[in-house]
Write a structure and sequence with these properties.
Strand order of the largest sheet of chain B: 2-1-3
Helix content of chain B: 25-40%
Structural class of chain A: mainly alpha
Number of helices of chain B: 6
Distance between the termini of chain B: 48 Å
CATH superfamily of the largest domain in chain A: Cytochrome C3
CATH architecture of one domain in chain B: Alpha-Beta Complex
Order of helices and strands of chain A: HHHHHEEHHHHE
Strand content of chain A: 5-15%
Distance between the termini of chain A: 68 Å
Largest sheet of chain B: 3 strands, antiparallel
CATH topology of one domain in chain B: Cytochrome C3
CATH class of the largest domain in chain A: Alpha Beta
Number of helices of chain A: 9
CATH class of one domain in chain B: Alpha Beta
CATH topology of the largest domain in chain A: Cytochrome C3
Shape of chain B: elongated
Order of helices and strands of chain B: HEEHHHHEH
Oligomer: heterodimer
Largest interface: A-B, 55 and 50 residues
Shape of chain A: globular
């Protein structure tokens, strides 16, 4: 008797689970088609009403909120998804991993505006900093930066090229100084803590 | 005593998180491309739509250094005093948008395509979220 009840309970719960899972697939399926037909992005989570709805990204100019949709060029400008198709994806910023796209030659930006053969002067030196708080050490790779920039972009105006001469804080970065001159505006956003705070903290001083 | 300190720390943490949440919940949703620059120091005052500069499109074709070192663009939205006279003279945008490297300046609306009233900004920037929400506002008031 009890066994039968248990069995039926299990059966109904299984059935319920199946119903729920079909329901989620049904509700999740039309979302990507509606948002971005050509996107290779994972479908936004829609089945949990408590989760904040993922805001649409990489919208075409006419729908992005800062272009005037009534101007003729809004239809002529290249939509981001089409332009950035085939680049290494990421989950932040433009949804593109720019450094990887450059290193794997998915983008080949010119180093000189007129000379397509000019090459960057890459410097492969890592700078490690120990932050004041408890976050892991920051590793600054000159390599990834000198593939895009030249020395004079950062030195000496933003960073004094001397050990210990630069006061850096997250407050300054969030206000657009130091690393925040680019990171949080064009380069990957500061929400990606671990991309900079990437090395186990050196042993604390006794 | 230690427990009090811990309680105080937790309280401070909650306060900080709460303030952070308040700050960020009231911002208009960022929908344009990360790094898009709106330039409207002079445009709307001169009867043109604001300029939208797509960083993503340009960084696929040119390293940051080309514009930010060779052409002298400062890392500051609205900090370069770009105007059409300079562009036609071959400075700033005009170094490429001259019909040789990129299409020429006659295509006004390709750049002047911003929604009227959009202020100078880096779209989606940190500072923008913390300091002000400038997407809708009076033209040309931002620094």
């Amino acid at each position: 008797m009890i066994k039968n009840i248990v069995k039926s309970v299990i059966a109904t719960s299984l059935f319920g689970a199946i119903v729920v899972s079909t329901a989620t697939t049904v509700s999740a399926a039309p979302a990507p088609a509606a948002a971005q037909p050509a996107a290779a992005q994972p479908a936004p989570v829609t089945f949990n009403r408590l989760l904040k709805k993922a805001s649409p990204t990489n919208l075409p100019p006419a729908e992005d909120g800062i272009h005037d949709p009534t101007v003729d060029s809004a239809q002529m400008l290249q939509p981001p998804l089409q332009g950035m198709n085939g680049l290494t994806r990421s989950n932040f910023g433009n949804n593109v991993n720019w450094v990887n796209s450059l290193q794997t030659k998915k983008v080949i930006p010119r180093w000189d505006r007129a000379d397509p053969n000019a090459e960057s002067l890459v410097m492969d030196v890592n700078i490690v900093r120990t932050p004041r708080g408890s976050m892991p050490d920051v590793v600054f790779p000159h390599k990834a930066h000198t593939e895009w920039l030249e020395c004079s972009n950062c030195h000496p105006a933003i960073f004094v090229p001397q050990k210990g001469a630069n006061q850096i804080s997250m407050a300054a970065i969030l206000l657009g100084q130091k690393c925040g001159v680019c990171h949080g505006k064009v380069a990957f956003p500061v929400s990606e803590c671990k991309l900079c705070h990437s090395q186990k903290r050196a042993a604390a001083a006794p | 005593m230690k427990r009090h300190l811990r309680l105080a720390a937790v309280f401070v943490l909650y306060a900080v998180v709460g303030v952070w949440g308040l700050l960020f919940s009231s911002i208009p949703e960022a929908r344009a491309e990360y790094g898009d620059i709106v330039m409207n120091n002079y445009a709307e005052k001169s009867g043109m739509r604001p300029v939208v500069f797509p960083h993503w499109f340009h960084r696929m074709r040119f390293a940051c250094k080309v514009c930010h070192a060779d052409l002298g663009f400062k890392f500051k939205a609205g900090g370069n005093e770009v105007n059409m006279a300079k562009i036609i003279d071959g400075e700033f945008c005009g170094a490429c948008h001259n019909g040789e490297i990129a299409w020429p300046v006659e295509n006004c609306n390709m750049c002047h395509s911003g929604k009227p009233g959009t202020v100078t900004q880096v779209h989606g920037a940190n500072g923008q979220k913390i300091i002000a929400a400038p997407v809708q506002g009076t033209a040309g008031t931002a620094k």
